[in-house]
Design the sequence.
């Protein structure tokens, strides 16, 4: 059971950091992941009960979700962040130069901005979906 907990903890942390929920931390997610796994005792013998480990992981995921929503669910949360900015779809991007040449640049910019604003508006609603999934998750 304990080796399964180590794997589960590592898997959850990998997803957590793989999704970019590091909230703008200056160090690479891989370095943060290694640091956290050491602090949690992943890969070592642990005296923590399974329920406590699961509770701690759920708490960490809830905090990460809250931070991610707070960063993205505000004006400019997507549009001003080059790491997650939603850009023009490939088929439109391919026509970008030609469309701008005929004076459609402002419309393209507005389209791109509207996609990002929609994501910024949707982020707070997604918080509850993520929190419900975290609460329902099992570590078996």
Sequence:
């Amino acid at each position: 059971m304990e080796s399964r907990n180590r794997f589960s903890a590592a898997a959850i942390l990998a997803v957590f950091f793989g999704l970019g929920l590091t909230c703008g931390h200056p160090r690479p997610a891989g370095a943060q992941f290694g640091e956290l796994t050491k602090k949690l005792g992943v890969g070592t013998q642990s005296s923590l009960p399974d329920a406590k480990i699961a509770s701690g992981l759920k708490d960490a995921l809830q905090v990460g979700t809250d931070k991610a929503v707070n960063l993205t669910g505000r004006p400019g949360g997507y549009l001003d962040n080059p790491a997650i900015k939603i850009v023009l779809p490939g088929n439109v991007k391919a026509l970008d130069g030609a469309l701008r040449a005929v004076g459609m640049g402002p419309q393209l910019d507005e389209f791109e901005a509207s996609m990002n604003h929609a994501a910024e508006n949707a982020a707070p609603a997604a918080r509850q979906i993520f929190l419900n999934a975290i609460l329902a998750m099992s570590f078996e």
